[in-house]
C-alpha cells in the first residue's frame, strides 16, 4: 500500500506540473483541459487520501492511462509538436515502483526514476536555456554542448527504458519485430545472447542498445558509454538496457550477469515492436 501511495504522489505531481504549464501558457480554451486534469487529479487524490483502500496494479495502470489519454488529446488539440527549450518533464512511470519485483526492486526504481532521471531532466533544461535562450558568454558554449549531450541522452534513454519494461511481459519478441530479429540474427536466442554479451561488456556506466539502422535497413546492437559516447550515429534505439551501477547495484551488487538474465523477464515486447514499426518507416538510400 505504501508503494502505491508513492506512485499516486508521483501522478499527483505530474497533474500539478501539467496544470501549471497550461495556466502559464494561457492558451485559448485551456479552461476545459485544466478542468479535465483537475478531475483526474481528484480521482488520484481520492486514493491518496483514502490510503487504506485496496488499489490493484490494474487500477493504478488505469489511472496512469487515463492521465496519459488526457495529455495525448490535449497535445493533439493544440497541435503541439515540440517541447519548448528548457521545458522537458520527467514522465511518470507506466507502472508502480514495486511492479517489476522481484526482478528490479522498488528501492532501485524509486531512486532511479525520482532522483537520477529527474536530475537529467533538470540538467537538460538548464543546458537548453543556456544554449538557446540565454548564451551571453560565448566562450563556454562547449560546456553547455557537453551538458546537453550528457543530460539529453540520459533523459531520452531513460524514457525509452521505462516504457521498454512491463510486469506483464510476453517474455519473447512478438509480431514484426520477431520476424526481423530472426531475419537479421538467425534466431531469438542468438540475438538474446549477443545482446546480453554486449550488456555485460559495459564497464561501470553505460547502456546496451538494440537499434534500427536506416542506412543498412537492418537491426543492430551497440553499447553506449555514459549516455552519449561510443554510439552509432544515425540509428534509432528500440530496446535499451541500463547498465549503470545505479540500475542494479543495490539489489545485485557486482552480479551483473543475474541482473541481465532476470531483466529479460520484464521486457515489454509490445512497446519494442511499436518502436520498431515506427522506426523502420525510415529507410535511407542503402550503402
Ligand atoms: Fe539509469
From TrEMBL:
<dbReference type="InterPro" id="IPR019831">
    <property type="entry name" value="Mn/Fe_SOD_N"/>
</dbReference>
<dbReference type="Pfam" id="PF02777">
    <property type="entry name" value="Sod_Fe_C"/>
</dbReference>
<dbReference type="Pfam" id="PF00081">
    <property type="entry name" value="Sod_Fe_N"/>
</dbReference>
<dbReference type="GO" id="GO:0046872">
    <property type="term" value="F:metal ion binding"/>
</dbReference>
<keyword id="KW-0479">Metal-binding</keyword>
<dbReference type="InterPro" id="IPR050265">
    <property type="entry name" value="Fe/Mn_Superoxide_Dismutase"/>
</dbReference>
<dbReference type="GO" id="GO:0004784">
    <property type="term" value="F:superoxide dismutase activity"/>
</dbReference>
<protein>
    <recommendedName>
        <fullName>superoxide dismutase</fullName>
        <ecNumber>1.15.1.1</ecNumber>
    </recommendedName>
</protein>
<dbReference type="InterPro" id="IPR019833">
    <property type="entry name" value="Mn/Fe_SOD_BS"/>
</dbReference>
<dbReference type="InterPro" id="IPR019832">
    <property type="entry name" value="Mn/Fe_SOD_C"/>
</dbReference>
<feature type="domain" description="Manganese/iron superoxide dismutase C-terminal">
    <location>
        <begin position="175"/>
        <end position="275"/>
    </location>
</feature>
<dbReference type="InterPro" id="IPR001189">
    <property type="entry name" value="Mn/Fe_SOD"/>
</dbReference>
<feature type="domain" description="Manganese/iron superoxide dismutase N-terminal">
    <location>
        <begin position="87"/>
        <end position="165"/>
    </location>
</feature>
<keyword id="KW-0560">Oxidoreductase</keyword>
<comment type="similarity">
    <text>Belongs to the iron/manganese superoxide dismutase family.</text>
</comment>
<dbReference type="InterPro" id="IPR036314">
    <property type="entry name" value="SOD_C_sf"/>
</dbReference>
<dbReference type="InterPro" id="IPR036324">
    <property type="entry name" value="Mn/Fe_SOD_N_sf"/>
</dbReference>
